[in-house]
């Protein structure tokens, strides 16, 4: 997996965690759900990159 892809996925995951925490603190269920969605998206992308890497070897 490329460094840029890893960085993008990590940034998306961190942003998702921040959104979830802010949503939890403020009681904003919509923001909390959006944060969880961002984290899930990051995980899926990361898994896809790992699959691509496995086929390159």
Secondary structure elements and pairings:
Blueprint: H1 3-26, H2 29-56
Family: Belongs to the UPF0337 (CsbD) family.
Protein name: CsbD family protein
Biased composition (Basic and acidic residues): 29-39, 46-57
How would you summarize what this structure contains?
This protein has two helices and no strands. With 57 residues, it is mainly alpha-helical. α1 (3-26) packs antiparallel against α2 (29-56).
- Helix percentage: over 70%
The mean pLDDT is 92
Number of strands: 0
Q: How many structurally independent domains?
A: 1
Biggest sheet details: none
Name the poorly predicted regions. none
Order of helices and strands: HH
What report would you give on this structure?
The termini are close together. The chain has one domain (3-56). With 57 residues, it is mainly alpha-helical. It contains 2 helices and no strands. The longest helix is centred in the C-terminal third of the chain and has 28 residues, at 29-56. Helices cover 91% and strands 0% of the residues.
List keywords for this structure.
57 residues; mainly alpha; elongated
